[in-house]
Design brief:
globular; mainly alpha; membrane; disordered C terminus; transmembrane helix
């Protein structure tokens, strides 16, 4: 019966993947909202009684499914960004100012704020830091409504002009990897006896070396695959000429695998690999084809994860949730992230047309839309394989994700339309 039900859920997932995007286009309802709700309805049916939904028994499945979902999303995000970032050209780094501020100021503030609330709620210091690290990064999977649509290609120099969507997309692409050192910090705090036993290891290896290895690996794999795809002497290897878009999957798996074997951060490697590959031939139509493959696979994986999450919600996943967990989740979404994000973006209303510019409304939007999602589930499942993770932590993280899905899903369309003067003007002219 369980196998038959699995086929039914898989069929429903595929059908929703085909129908939902166009059905919801004119409504302020996101596909993740519908998927979680459908999953909850399925979970409430008696036929789902035999489904294995216990997070502890299925920890490895949760970890690897969400891991794959995130790296596929990161590949798509890296290919979608039109704005270049070249190590040897400082001017390109300046155009990413808003991204750096969200990563280096807002994310640590969010981790600290959540950790303090967790400590106030009675968590041990290690568990409190873990909660902060798990919930702080924005999600590249569920934030599609506020991200750039895809790569611009053609016979012109491409550069992302929508500063708000670029900021939210680039932040989601980078902070999943940059949150990993803080997950490692929580694990070390829980498993090592004293600070002296782990402080240097964390600073030197987890915070610095693994980041550098991930970035270097991404650049190397991206350059190698781009050379093969676009400039190989063998025509059979120049896959870009024949539009073999499955190169996207080969690239993301290779970059992730090499980085992990080299003990770097695979999430960073995949994102950097995608951007490096894009830089090789920025306007080539091949990038759009690769992005489409990554986007479709991401959609299917997300459908599965969100349906499973919805089923688990009505099968006891939130049984340990109390007012403390609700307070922490809502505080993050409504207070901590918006304030931390806005503070980090202060002063970016620069009149310089060549650099990062955000209106006050756009800065608030960039601060508010810190979507929580699949990445948080991955980090928690990963940590649960190293240390004990309580049902309360699972319930609190899950509640925050679901609250983010509905809160940000409802507000994404109207808010993004309101803070985008070009779209408002266009709508008025159309009317």
């Amino acid at each position: 019966m369980t196998a038959d039900l699995a086929y039914l859920i898989a069929g429903a997932s595929l059908l929703l993947a085909v129908l939902l995007p166009d059905l919801l286009r004119r409504w302020a309802i996101s596909a993740p909202m519908v998927l979680v709700a459908v999953g909850m309805l399925i979970g409430a049916l008696p036929i789902t009684d035999g489904l294995p939904v216990d997070v502890h028994e299925n920890r490895a499945l949760i970890e690897h499914t969400t891991e794959l979902c995130v790296i596929v999303a990161l590949m798509g995000v890296g290919l979608a960004l039109d704005r270049p970032l070249w190590i040897r050209r400082p001017s390109t780094w300046w155009t990413w100012t808003a991204t750096w501020r969200l990563l280096l100021v807002a994310m640590p503030l969010c981790i600290a704020g959540i950790a303090l609330l967790g400590w106030w709620a009675g968590l041990a210091p290690a568990a409190a830091v873990l909660l902060g690290a798990v919930l702080a990064p924005t999600d590249p999977v569920l934030a599609s409504d506020v991200q750039v649509a895809g790569p611009q290609t053609g016979d012109h120099e491409v550069d992302e002009s929508d500063e708000l969507r670029f900021t939210l997309t680039s932040e989601a692409g980078l902070n999943d990897g940059l949150a990993f050192p803080f997950v490692a910090l929580a694990i070390l705090m829980a498993t090592e006896a004293t600070v002296g036993d782990w402080a240097l290891e964390w600073l030197g290896f987890h915070l610095v070396a693994k980041v550098l290895i991930g970035v270097a690996t991404g650049i190397a794999v991206g350059q190698l695959l781009a050379h093969i795809a676009f400039r190989s002497q063998s025509r059979a290897l120049r896959v870009a000429e024949r539009g073999e878009s499955l190169m996207a999957l080969a690239a993301l798996v290779t970059a992730y695998g090499v980085a992990e074997v080299a003990q770097g951060y695979g999430f960073l490697a995949v994102f950097v690999c995608a951007m490096t590959f894009r830089d090789a031939e920025r306007s080539h139509d091949y990038h759009a084809a690769m992005h489409e493959v990554a986007e479709r696979l991401e959609r299917l994986l997300t459908l599965f994860v969100l349906l499973a999450l919805g089923i688990a919600l009505t099968r006891g996943l939130l049984a340990e949730l109390d007012w403390r967990g609700v307070a922490i989740g809502l505080a993050l979404l409504l207070v901590i992230r918006p304030l931390a994000g806005f503070v980090s973006l202060a002063g970016l209303g620069s009149p310089d047309p060549d650099h990062a510019r955000l209106t006050t409304g756009q800065r608030w939007a960039a601060a508010f839309f810190g979507v929580r999602g699949v990445g948080s589930l991955y980090y928690l499942a990963y940590a649960a394989g190293k240390v004990e993770v309580s049902d309360w932590l699972w319930a609190t993280v899950t509640f925050t994700i679901v609250a983010s899905v509905f809160l940000h899903g409802i507000l994404a369309t109207p808010v993004m339309r309101h803070v985008d003067p070009d779209r408002r003007t266009g709508s008025a002219q159309d009317g």
